[in-house]
Every structure is written in C-alpha cells, then in structure tokens.
Amino acid sequence: MTTAPRPPGEPVWHRRLALDPPALSDLRAHVRAAAAACGLGEAETARLVLAVDEAAQNIIRHGYQSDAGGPVEIALWQDGRDLKVRLRDFAPLADLAQIRPRPLDQVRPGGLGTHLIATIMDEVVYRHAEDGSGNILDMSMRWRGG
C-alpha cells in the first residue's frame, strides 16, 4: 500500500492505530509526550493535544461514519521552529469543500472542531491521499517557547 510522502526528517512520534473513542486517551498521552520531547511548553502542548484530539474525533465521526476501529496513521515531527502533525485515514474520500468551520453565531451542534483546529494551528491543509485511498490532514504549529 502506498502512503503519503514522509515529512522531512524523522518523526518524533509515528503510529498506525485503529482509531476508536477509547484509543483517544492513549493518543492524547502520546502526543503530549512527543510535544514535551520537542520542548513545547505546557500551554502549547495542551493546545496541540486539543487540535489532534479534535481531528481524530472528526475522522471517527465523519471519515469512518462513527464506525470505530478505522485505521489512521499519525506522525508528529519538528521542522525548525514548527511542530507538524499529519493524520492520514483510509476512509472514503472527503468532500474537501465541505470541511470548514461553521459560523460561530449559528447555535447548533457540530462544526466547532474544525474551528478549534484552525484557531489553534498556524497551518491546516486537508487533502486526499495521492493514491486515492483516504484523506490527509497536515497541521503545523509555530513553536513559540524558548
């Protein structure tokens, strides 16, 4: 199976896992540890963990239509002062034009995860995997710590 091109450099953390709600706790712990290994402060780490958790929940809910256990590849790496995260699912191709935050003045459920991700991360790119078997979310956060 062909996967998306690897990011430059070696990932600080890389896993392929079956994504389901109980796995999210372990995912958050691993992202927290990887961020700490990169030197992120507590506040930046908390924001990063929130963004990755929201993205993973969206993959479960929308990509895999709440069918728990769908595979996902997650990588986290440093590129200069940027901390980058890639989530790659193997779900049906998403309609990329539909992935956007809803206006916050609309009081209804849904759409806040993409808003949180866009607010927390400095760059967010949704795309289809090059081989057409799934979706990729690339996110980066500029490391502001010392």
Strand order of the largest sheet: 1-2-3-5-4
Binned, the helix content reads: 25-40%
Distance between the ends: 40 Å
- Taken together, the total number of domains comes to 1
Count up the helices: 3
CATH architecture: 2-Layer Sandwich
Question: Summarize this, please?
Answer:
The protein is an alpha+beta fold. It has helices at residues 23-37, 42-63, 112-120, and strands at 13-19, 70-79, 82-89, 123-128, 135-142. Helix 1 (23-37) runs antiparallel to helix 2.
SSE layout:
Elements: E1 13-19, H1 23-37, H2 42-63, E2 70-79, E3 82-89, H3 112-120, E4 123-128, E5 135-142
Antiparallel strand pairs: 1-2, 2-3, 3-5, 4-5
Structural description of this entry:
The protein is α+β, with helices and mostly antiparallel strands and 146 residues long. It has three helices and five strands. It has a five-stranded antiparallel sheet, with helices on one face. β2 and β3 form a beta hairpin. α1 runs antiparallel to α2 (42-63) and α2 runs antiparallel to α3 (112-120). The model is unreliable at 1-6 (pLDDT under 50).
Keywords:
146 residues; alpha+beta; Heat Shock Protein 90; 5-stranded antiparallel β-sheet; globular; disordered N terminus
